[in-house]
Amino acid sequence: MYTIRPIRSEEDYEAACARIRELMGAQLNTPEGDELDVLADLVEHYEDKHYPIGMPTAVDAIEFRMEQAGLTRRDLIPLIGSRQKVSEILTGKRDVTISMARALHKHLGIPADVLLQEPGAAFDSTYDEIDPRRFPLKEMAKRNWIPQLPDLRDRAEEVINTLVERAGGPQAAALTLYRKNSHRRINAKTDPYALRAWCWRVLALANQNPPQARYRPGAVTEPFMREVAQLSVYEDGPRRAQQRLAEHGIALVIERHLPRTHLDGAALCLLDGRPVIGLTLRYDRIDNFWFSLMHELAHVSLHLDCHENELFIDDLSLTGDDPLEEEADTLAQDALIPPQLWQTSPVRERATILAVYDFAREVGVHPAVIAGRVRHERSNYRLLSQLVGSGKVRRLFER
To answer: Domain 58-123's class?
Structure first.
């Protein structure tokens, strides 16, 4: 007589299988039927643990679905791209790309984790609206962000996916899709594809040369920002600032903006939680560099939460009523020039070159910082133009 017991060995497994064969055909709601159900569960549990079935390859899954639905290779062309690509995928000469996988998942119902060969993988529906061919591919290739290929438009998906991987993969790239937790101070005419590409490029460069120090949340305070701002007195102050931030786990990346982005800077995050500040030096001036840097540092201090995948994108020429941007502007100004000193400074009433230099020495910052503040408050950008350090920042970061 067979006694039901846990299956702990191959002998137990073989005995249970033999008993199942004997019970085949047992009626439901009978002692034999109940015994069959229990044994089947025990055997299934043992097999799951000791004989796991491996994940099928993407090609196996595609071919199975083709056979199941009666599809031909021609039916796959709209999903994969061309007859040649279909052939290369099915013969294993080409990997399934993310957009191919998304199309196969959407139209043929093949699981995402099988297509991507990543257990638990899923597609973010936000990506469905992205067309890789709409990125400024020629300009990106010209700048060596992506390879210069003769069939660049046809291989747009491939090169964009490579950039995304360098930025940190889909999880990092999704940050730039501007969900409800993103903050944009951007021109209405901004090209979102160019903006995404710039953000990915900044993240890629930060990943390529990440700060070695560990970032400690809360390290960016107003006194810390003021300490960084006082590096402006040095001719190579911007490079010194980059090094000081790296020592605190913050990456500072300088990358020119793309056409139709109207961008000064951004505050983003690496996947490990270290902040990344990207600056474009759209206006290559000392005063603009220091205010832009302080503004993005203010976002790091006040608003940026890398655990929530936030980002801040800024065109600092714009004004508005966003309270977060107003807070960042205020902290940036106060870190550069202590408000109690600014309120009592004679330079506000009589902004001569000598007064600017004297006040800059008192505050401990570059005269361009003072000149920039005066010009901004008076909305007179012809004033003190000889002091703002035009053309003296970008050259410090030329690679």
So the answer is: mainly alpha
